Amino acid sequence: MSMIGGKPVLYSYWRSSCSWRVRIAMNLKEIQYNIKPVSLIKAGGEQHSNEYREVNPMEQVPALHIDGITLVESLNIMNYLEETRPQRPLLPHDVVKRAKVREVCEVIASGIQPLQNLVVLIYVGEEKKNEWAQHWINRGFRAIERLLSVCAGKYCVGDEITLADCCLIPQVFNARRFHVDLRPFPIILRIDRELENHPAFRAAHPSNQPDCPPEAVK
Amino acid sequence: MSMIGGKPVLYSYWRSSCSWRVRIAMNLKEIQYNIKPVSLIKAGGEQHSNEYREVNPMEQVPALHIDGITLVESLNIMNYLEETRPQRPLLPHDVVKRAKVREVCEVIASGIQPLQNLVVLIYVGEEKKNEWAQHWINRGFRAIERLLSVCAGKYCVGDEITLADCCLIPQVFNARRFHVDLRPFPIILRIDRELENHPAFRAAHPSNQPDCPPEAVK
């Protein structure tokens, strides 16, 4: 439950986009960590176990055990890393650019992902789940494409990788999973291509996780 | 569309909990501002107009015009205010306490509110909307009650009002609107009682907004 060999422990699921955001941030900041996989599907979901509820009362991943404390909620974890590990900053120095980064993060973290989350899709039902997920991803991506048309450079905000990119790339993966037509979002697609082979992003990819089932590896 | 008399302009709807969060933060920091009401119900929702989409591509409130720029997403707006208006801080100085504040904010802003948002309830349908909203509010409040059992003092995190309180109080109002039984959440209820008569919270209350319909005023 605590540190393994002194390293931070990330409770993670290979395909969870929220876990993936944190994995990218840890990799960019070159923070060594161990992964403790939490299967969201095995036996109705290990995240609902009494043991894991003590780690994260929201019964979801990620959670990070670091510096003797346990943190939950992905943006919160990334903000904590930013405040305690200033190497390779993931927020710009300029307050307006910081706000632009946070806008993209929050549209994804509050406006898209919660609505196409596994636990919500189970509640929506098998029959309707694809249409439901597509609706909310399209709505959010239309907004993000407009935001990026003003603030994007090589990446989401200017030419440095930020927390916005850590959130965007996993959300693009989810969009493809739900067969969203991405052609109306050329800036999003360009940034996705820009980052797909970046080592920190590659290492965080679902197919490179210890709990990725062999049949899912591309 | 821009500043009225040099003051910041908040695009707000009286009953929107996300607008309400920002109103509380503005009031606590004693920032003078003008409200531009956006009716979420009139003519199918003024937030979907071409004019407003230029303000906020997510077609929702709040948005804040301040310092010559327009900001969207409530937590982002509050973070910008915190970084540019340090008077009456709403984040603790200590990094661990800051993380505890952000955990509560993010559980509400990503884990509860997006799922009981008006636009989602329209999609869910009239018949199922109460049960749906109750389900997600109960789930989130169970988690918040556990988080607060560790970090609460007089308020959500310790004895100073923080961004967590700005998010919690409007969410409690929503819970009541959807007839959630709040008795299992004694810490949440205590903090709500503690803050209900605070001037900054009172002035931000839906019933004290210029666009509150007369029949809704308590």
From TrEMBL, chains A, B:
<dbReference type="GO" id="GO:0005739">
    <property type="term" value="C:mitochondrion"/>
</dbReference>
<keyword id="KW-0963">Cytoplasm</keyword>
<feature type="domain" description="GST C-terminal">
    <location>
        <begin position="94"/>
        <end position="214"/>
    </location>
</feature>
<dbReference type="InterPro" id="IPR005955">
    <property type="entry name" value="GST_Zeta"/>
</dbReference>
<keyword id="KW-0808">Transferase</keyword>
<feature type="domain" description="GST N-terminal">
    <location>
        <begin position="6"/>
        <end position="89"/>
    </location>
</feature>
<dbReference type="InterPro" id="IPR034330">
    <property type="entry name" value="GST_Zeta_C"/>
</dbReference>
<dbReference type="Pfam" id="PF14497">
    <property type="entry name" value="GST_C_3"/>
</dbReference>
<dbReference type="InterPro" id="IPR004046">
    <property type="entry name" value="GST_C"/>
</dbReference>
<dbReference type="GO" id="GO:0006749">
    <property type="term" value="P:glutathione metabolic process"/>
</dbReference>
<dbReference type="InterPro" id="IPR036282">
    <property type="entry name" value="Glutathione-S-Trfase_C_sf"/>
</dbReference>
<dbReference type="GO" id="GO:0016034">
    <property type="term" value="F:maleylacetoacetate isomerase activity"/>
</dbReference>
<dbReference type="InterPro" id="IPR010987">
    <property type="entry name" value="Glutathione-S-Trfase_C-like"/>
</dbReference>
<keyword id="KW-0585">Phenylalanine catabolism</keyword>
<dbReference type="GO" id="GO:0006559">
    <property type="term" value="P:L-phenylalanine catabolic process"/>
</dbReference>
<dbReference type="GO" id="GO:0006572">
    <property type="term" value="P:L-tyrosine catabolic process"/>
</dbReference>
<keyword id="KW-0828">Tyrosine catabolism</keyword>
<comment type="pathway">
    <text>Amino-acid degradation; L-phenylalanine degradation; acetoacetate and fumarate from L-phenylalanine: step 5/6.</text>
</comment>
<dbReference type="InterPro" id="IPR034333">
    <property type="entry name" value="GST_Zeta_N"/>
</dbReference>
<comment type="similarity">
    <text>Belongs to the GST superfamily. Zeta family.</text>
</comment>
<dbReference type="Pfam" id="PF13409">
    <property type="entry name" value="GST_N_2"/>
</dbReference>
<dbReference type="InterPro" id="IPR040079">
    <property type="entry name" value="Glutathione_S-Trfase"/>
</dbReference>
<protein>
    <submittedName>
        <fullName>Glutathione S-transferase zeta 1</fullName>
    </submittedName>
</protein>
<dbReference type="GO" id="GO:0004364">
    <property type="term" value="F:glutathione transferase activity"/>
</dbReference>
<dbReference type="InterPro" id="IPR004045">
    <property type="entry name" value="Glutathione_S-Trfase_N"/>
</dbReference>
<keyword id="KW-0413">Isomerase</keyword>
<dbReference type="InterPro" id="IPR036249">
    <property type="entry name" value="Thioredoxin-like_sf"/>
</dbReference>
